[in-house]
Every structure is written in structure tokens, then in C-alpha cells.
TrEMBL record:
InterPro entries: Acyl-CoA_thioesterase_PaaI, HotDog_dom_sf, PaaD, PAAI_dom, Thioestr_dom. One of its GO terms (molecular function) is acyl-CoA hydrolase activity. Belongs to the thioesterase PaaI family. Gene3D superfamilies: Hotdog Thioesterase (3.10.129.10). Keywords: Hydrolase. This is Hydroxyphenylacetyl-CoA thioesterase PaaI. Residues 50-122 form the Thioesterase domain. Signal peptide: none annotated.
């Protein structure tokens, strides 16, 4: 299999049991070796007391793209540490996109950066550290 086929099959193996993103309306738009793109539309149920998208939903979108990127090699990987910087608010009806890219991967650890955008503007930056665990996806 090519690296692209491994990434796609790994994503396909994860999706049936990945209930949280599905419940939030998160869609996996693309996967490749060490990268993934995911998106969601901000709904009225996702806003906070300021009328903007709650940061937890933005984090969940970033974490989902990160998960598909770090699991794109067929080996199971989980988050070891994550952080996010919120740069601009997101409003009801905006489509948010998260693009995860691998920065470094060696042995059992990886580092991934996720850029979140809405209407072409960067709204948040996320960094995730992954750790592989026993088991494979495919």
C-alpha cells in the first residue's frame, strides 16, 4: 500500500467508532500521511455567553484533525499534550476548517500543528503532541 492508501484506510477504520466528532457535525475532509483536514459549521447550540463559538468546540475540531493526522500511519496514537491559542472569535453559521500537519515524528512521539480558519481568517492555532500506543488500525 502507498502512504496515502494507509492514511485513508486508517481514517476509514477510525470513523465508525469516532462518535464525538460525528455528534458535533465534524467532517473529515481529507487525510494523508501526517496530515488531515476537518471542518464543521458553528451552530446556535455551540455559542457561549458572548454569542461566539465556545472554545471547547473549536478545540474539539482541532483535536479531531490532529487525531486523524497522527493516526495516519496505521498505528494507534493518542494525544499526550495539546495547547491552543484563540486568535479571533467564530460566529454562528461560520464554517470552520482545521488543517493538521505533522512537524516531527520519531519513535513513539509526534508533534502536529493545526491551523483553524473561518472565511479565510486564522481563528486559532493548536499544537498537539502524540504518543503511539500498542495496536494498529489496519
Amino acid at each position: 500500500m502507498t502512504p496515502e492508501e494507509i492514511a485513508r484506510r486508517s481514517a476509514d477504520a477510525m470513523m465508525p467508532d469516532d462518535k464525538a466528532p460525528a455528534a458535533l457535525g465534524i467532517v473529515i475532509d481529507d487525510v494523508g500521511p501526517g496530515e488531515a483536514a476537518a471542518s464543521m459549521v458553528v451552530t446556535e447550540a455551540m455559542v457561549n455567553g458572548h454569542g461566539t463559538c465556545h472554545g471547547g468546540y473549536i478545540f474539539a475540531l482541532a483535536d479531531t484533525a490532529f487525531a486523524y493526522a497522527c493516526n495516519s500511519y496505521g498505528q494507534r496514537a493518542v494525544a499526550q499534550h495539546c495547547s491552543i491559542s484563540f486568535l479571533k472569535p467564530a460566529q454562528i453559521g461560520m464554517k470552520l476548517t482545521a488543517l493538521a500537519r505533522e512537524r516531527h515524528r520519531a519513535e513513539r512521539s509526534g508533534i502536529y500543528d493545526v491551523t483553524l480558519t473561518a472565511d479565510g481568517d486564522v481563528i486559532a492555532e493548536f499544537r498537539g503532541h502524540s504518543r503511539t500506543v500498542p495496536g494498529t488500525l489496519i
